[in-house]
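Priority: low. Protein: AMGO3 protein. Input follows.
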Amino acid sequence: PATMSSPAAADTVWPRAAKLFLLLLQLCAPRASPQPHRCPNTCICTSDLLSCSRQTLRWVPQALPPTTTTLDLSHNALTQLHDHWLAALPHLEALHISHNQIRDLSPRAFHNASFLRHLDMSSNHLQAVERHYFEALVSLEELLLYDNHIKRVDENAFAKLSDLRKVYLSWNNLTTFPFHAVQGLGIHKLRTLDLSSNSLSSIPVEVLAALPENVGNGLYLHNNPIRCSCQLYLMLQRWNQRGFSSVKDFSEEHTCKVSDNVPRSLIKFLKHRDMFENCSASTEDAHLSHLEVVVGQPVLLACNSSNSSLPHAATTSMWITPRQEPIKHPGNSNRSLEVYPNGSLRITAAKPW
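Result:
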């Protein structure tokens, strides 16, 4: 005869079957993938490149993808970088922050960026290069700081950057530079130190002349009002003869200032090297005098070099035109400017600058 299971047995079987069914569903269901890293709305993201350029950003976007190796924040309106802001980007190698409005850097702005190799902070408003600015960037190879407002570089600003190969500081307001600290720039790796187009008035020639060839070849000093001296001329002439790019490629842009007291007395002294053919004697500045003249009339500017303390045979009188052209005896080609043997200058017809 047929038998029927008791209600108590059925009550035991069904809960077990339900649990087994739920367990099977969990095992068979596809596992949820991790949430993808979202790209900020104002940026363009690729596998490892993040571009947030030209978005008028006033602050750095949040939640940047941690896979980023290159970050472009150029051409925005950033005024500061907060401490540890790169902590979420452990693989960052290149950072572009040019054309912003950054005036200075906090002590820990670049902490957590030990893999960074390329940093472009050109065309900002930096006033100086302080010691703490970049000391955490121990892997840095290229540093672009041109076209800022930099007036001073701390002598230890690059002391910890032993891998540094290229430093660009042109088009700033530097009047001095700690050249003796160049020895701390990983001197065997340094290939470019661009100090052109600043306001350097003097350089320690004896220090620079002793630098290794790789440093001299990449030390750019053109377009600076450096005081003329035979030591400066002979050093640059020697570099030019050795084919150093820093001199050879910019020979017409190497200027020196004849006198600190005379405005617009710059001369392109490598272009007019014949003016320094007897470069072994010292130079003397003529005393300034003021003279009122009539436009179009002849003018005689007296300069009696016979009163100089230098021997007459070693004395060369030279005048610098407003176009930075040197004029010496007997004068220019069309004789509109005549230089007499005693150093006096005759201008055939005075012209305004």
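Confidence is low (pLDDT under 50) at residues 1-5, 31-35, 281-287, 307-311. DSSP finds five helices and 19 strands in the chain.
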